[in-house]
Amino acid sequence: MSLYTDYLAEIETRKGEDLHPKPIDDGALVAELIAQIEDLGNEHRDDSLNFFIYNTLPGTTSAAGVKAAFLKKIILGEAAVAEITPDFAFELLSHMKGGPSVEVLLDLALGEDAAIAEKAGEVLKTQVFLYEADMARLKDAFDAGNAVAKDILESYAKAEFFTKLPDVEEEIKVVTYIAAEGDISTDLLSPGNQAHSRSDRELHGKCMITPEAQAEIQELQKQHPDKRVMLIAEKGTMGVGSSRMSGVNNVALWTGKPTSPYVPFVNYAPVVAGTNGISPIFLTTVGVTGGIGLDLKNWVKKLDGEGKPVLNNEGNPVLEQKYSVATGTVLTIDTKAMKLKDEAGTEELVDVSSAFTPQKVEFMKAGSSYAIVFGKKLQTFAAETLGVEPTPVFAPNKEVTAEGQGLTAVEKIFNRNALGVPKGKTLLAGSDVRVKVNIVGSQDTTGLMTAQELEAMAATVISPTVDAAYQSGCHTASVWDKKAQANIPKLMSFMNNFGVVTARDPKGVYHSMTDVIHKVLNDITVDDWDIIVGGDSHTRMSKGVAFGADSGTVALALATGEATMPIPDSVKVTFKGQMAPHMDFRDVVHATQAQMLQQHGDNVFQGRIIEVHIGTLLADQAFTFTDWTAEMKAKASICISNDETLIGSLELAKHRIQVMIDKGMDNAAGTLAGLIAKADKRIEEIRSGEKPALKPDDGAKYFAEVVVDLDLIDEPMIADPDVNNADPSRRYTHDTIRPISYYGSEKKVDLGFVGSCMVHKGDMKIVAQMLKNLEKANGKVEFKAPLVVAAPTYNIIDELKAEGDWEILQKYSGFEFDDLFPKANARTEYENILYLERPGCNLCMGNQEKAAKGDTVLATSTRLFQGRVVEDTAEKKGESLLASTPVVVLSAILGRTPSAEEYKTAVEGIDLTKFAPPTEKPGTARSVHF
Hints:
This protein is of the alpha/beta class. Helix content is 37%, strand content 16%.
């Protein structure tokens, strides 16, 4: 058997799944293809030639290296293939976009043959993915008087790689397709339970929405071959929940344009829209692919004679349709006037200028946002090498300034980390900024795509300016099945070689960690002025400012140590009053959303920074708030801490990082040890008064302010997906917050889940305390519904074992995870017992473990989207209701939601997560967990 015959066998298997041959990334297989191409009588020659030309992945894959080397031989006349002329070989190299192909082109451009050198130079002028070593070769050649190198550099200084691209069409005809009504989670576009296939783009594309929807999209394309299909969230926001590069990839696969005829299943330029626009992190992902994201505003609130919203019987605003976007409607996007118009282009429907800022238009023209990032870097290098000013080509960054205006916390962080901004210039919200990224996170179900993106942009090592990066294993922690066994070790090996600290040691020296990525990032962030980027929407740290991002943006941050984005507006959240003794901090989080809506009517958090003046909560507990802000549709969140609280959080972080070092997780570069040194420096700055904890200026300007009144929170609160609301736009949002009394002790609960990134060590202790108390009161503890408990990290379990709490949990459990024999299959049925599951995301991710279809689940997690934690049946919709740990535990024991009185009795004497608002004098108010 050969690699090629194995490949043929795989092709036959894929045919049965209606799939084309999988793109090739293995250099050894490409070497076999080449041998068969050169053997003119080989029976597989024609197919091998086809696979070599059209089905070999570019970038830094080993396949790309072998392909580029053979094309070089053809160009130099050292090999002859009738079907691949030297000119065609140059064309193929031009589509390989970096890595080995750029190395080959530089070899040829700087070589002895003048004719070949000139042709290679012309191809290089179209390339942007050059790294330091490539630039150094050009500079050395230029310094030595090489005319071709000079010609290339002059082209780069003029940014001809960009200016010679076609402009964005002035008029784009689209035909609408309503993907769903209400908010559309990225789970609809790329379901979590299909995460294993994301790096196989064609296979993964088959999971978008439904097969019926895919057929309908194809039918629209047949009817309108000259138009682009626009996917729409009717009466909702498109892409809530997560960034999901795989979701955008799927939309592009079905509705976009091919990136290259020689790179299969990689499309770009999708068009998506929503009545309420696009979720912020998903919109970033759309930009990565050079796509268009429109805010339709096609439904508006109906107003009465006094200009106030008309409410229905449920207290929700009644919506009126301004114009129809029903499936099959043809519309015109006027990119010059930045208006959405009717089919004829005569009637203006809505202003869409926010989708066509100069920067976004550049992404569309270049086909991706990071082509622009690399292009700007390349132009700057070329101009500096030549000693000239770069030709003004790219849209100048938007700069918003105001003399004497104070800064919000995010404005301070962005100005501190800004790159390319003149010294002394202070930028405000709305400004476009390149910033240094300090911490980068990659999780395991997007990591394979991040690795692909790194290969595609020809990156081989992490940027030296990144303080630390972490690759998690939490999203595939629950079930070590064949899919995980095939994908995860390969991912960990790639990332470890790239310079990332990895949860799993490719050499098997240290115990595999499945800790939830956000928790680890929260620990390894050791400066409140840091910028963090992570491949998950819940990259929301309680120190610094963190942004959830798609796999492409994560790859860009890893490769360059940079990110580019506007400085967001901020909403200031402060607290007053006092927490009732029976309340948990999770109820404060829910109350923040509810009281914000009461105070402002609309969700003022959407697309903005939530600057929460939490002051007295340590990082673990404060993370509960910042983590939730992803569900509030916020761009990010910043915790404003007191000095001594921040010091306590940094000391805790140092301890957790040291545990990682003790386990053997540090790399050759000493990344983790460097973080401890950085934390020590920050602690000394705070203690000495040289640089106190981050806080905004008194004169800072906010988009809005929210004051949460703790005195109003008297009973536990539940975020309800409201699955049967008559208005589809009101289902599966996090805006329906209800007191527990709403359910009248009658809401049946089929399963309870305590876990995910929303819980901390204190939550695990609460479970243990409640079980002890209930046994003492009743003689025993019986569960009328299953209770699944998944600690977010191993260090929490270790600490619980040391303090005696894990023994209590073991006593009541009917199942306890075993790392020596991890589950090989996802659980499909649950008994009425306590399950102690492996640290990780578990039910919250929805890609492995699920509740039974149609169940009503009460969970501490964050996801209440349709089909995520629990799927529907034909008879009943699955529900994922979200509440505090004590509510979930008690509900599993009762098999229903408790009354307020039952709840108060059950938590009496239990150390719940308490919070006291900061006082006027910082440092005088403490949480009980300090």
